[in-house]
Amino acid sequence: MRQGGEGSAEPSVRLDGVTKRFGDFTAVRDLKVDIPRGQFFTMLGPSGCGKTTTLRMVAGFEEPTEGRVLLDGEDVTDRPAFRRSTNTVFQNYALFPHLSVERNVAFGLQRRKVDKAEIRRRVSDELERVGLAAEAKRRPAQLSGGQQQRVALARALVNRPAVLLLDEPLGALDLKLRKQLQVELKRIQREVGITFVYVTHDQEEALTMSDRIAVMNRGAIEQVADPEAVYERPATTFVAGFIGVSNLMPGEVVSANGAATELRLDAGPTVRTAESGGARRGERAHAVVRPEKLVLRPAGDFADDGRASVEGQVESSLYMGTATQMMVRLADGTRMTVLVPNVDVDARRRLPSPGDPARLSWSDENIHIVREAMA
Amino acid sequence: MEARTAPAPTAQREAGVPAARGPRDRHRGGSLLDLGLNFYALLALVYLLVPIAVILVFSFNDPRGRFNFIWEEFSLDAWGDPFGVPGIREALVNSIEIAALSTLAATALGTLTALALVRYEFRGRAPINFFIFIPLATPEVVLGAALLSLFLNNAVATGFGTIVIAHIMFSLSFVIITVRSRLIGFDRSLEEAAQDLGATPWQTFRLVTLPLIMPGVLSAALLAFALSVDDFVITNFNAGSTVTFPLFIWGAARVAVPPQIYVIASMIFLFTLAMMLLTVWQQRRAERMAAVRSEPEEA
After folding, report:
1. Among A117, A191, B207, B277, which residue's CB has the most CB atoms within a 10 Å radius?
2. Which domains, from first to last, does chain B contain?
């Protein structure tokens, strides 16, 4: 039951129209997700978007108001947490303060009446894996935050759950340690091959660790895709804005057929892309382009290279070491962020200064069309 | 050398006042004020402890006559034969049995009530939170008389059983309030973690909740025990023919006050003191365990 048959077609986790309401407030709205076995799946969104509530419904701490939760094809909606094949790494770790590290880690195996010698072996193996073998006899309060985090991970993983649920597990740690543990977590996940469901509000964390990301906003999923697709081809303006810095240029769809979509920007030019993002002719939509994919030149220095371009005025310039971040205001008032890599001193010197007119160009293949609102 | 560099604590020690802080982090002006405050605290302590000291001292007295009120000479006779007075052993055994039973029952009942009051939203929670204070504020005479008329009207014979019932009743509020204060601020995610790891609700309570609220439960039990052992008023109403230690003293005082009474009282005091120290030690340990160290991360 713990580890279902390898390669079975059933997803590790399936949320089937799950809704959770607290009184009048809808925390999670009609979620439908399948998470295949062994995937590192991340739920990403701002606080209050329903990602933690969703995780708690998978763990069995909250009961869905509507819909079903399935683990390995089995409906566990009415099953309490202690009878589910999931384990959780809590945001505050929730280590038992009255038990030693060793006994914390052994807790789950003892509940399952595993043989004593076997428990001892698996606990010490697991503590070895997270590099805490020397701390086995200590109490959680005697450990640093990073060590406590590792104990929490060991305590969950030692049970070899079918699914490991992680609720912002690195949120309380400082940046350097967080980076280090991100790599460690990813390595461990590959090693044990367990399905990870990871909740975070940190988009960088999500992009670097995940196989697939669900971007959530106000109780609903806005997009489920792999990190590259979420970044390069955001499905909604929310996703475009939440993940990294995006430039949104408003416009109107002037033609849309299977082959191509044309969007006439309010700022002037018309862009043409192969995909429509679901937009139909006559609709309002946005062209999304990432700051690093724009090319900035002084207004006079315009070479007709066949790329679409638009004129604006430089508002500010911020030196950031590897790149310079320029803010450009277009004719229709849209503000664009441009990231110019600091390749050489000469190129930097040619950049327009604040107040100067400038021209932004891009190649249409880096443009992505997003509708104003999700259907 | 030491006496020269740190004269302040020496002076304080002579005055019989313990130094509150090291000499270095104190200003000159504050020193006198501290001394005054410490002296004041000492007076309060003396006020509290003198009666107990008298009991301890007089338990070693060898009185002329039947009343142990005037110091005559030091003697170990009473300590050598604490049960040398007829009836005193039975009274003490009754008191201890009643205290043990009522403490057990009141602690179990009160702990569960506190859990319900803190954990669950239910109809009547607010009134109950208010009602548990009523027995504390009601005069004991009223409670004792009310209980007696309740027992008489229901044809319940007063005696050992009714004393236990009465003691459970008046200990309950103290237990609930003590345990409740420990439960407020209890990290619920610890219980979720236990369930997440496969612990049933009962295992979660036994292995996680109870050990963590144990200091509160122990204090509550100690309080209940002390309240029961020394209760006179309510017990007197509901005792029937059963004699507890306080009732025994009351009865005996009319004809004699042997030093044995002081010996037993001293024993009860020393026992309570030992239990209190144990509880304090246990609490310290629990706090140490729960304290999260905030030291810089190792790389």
Report:
1. B207
2. 86-258 (1.10.3720.10)
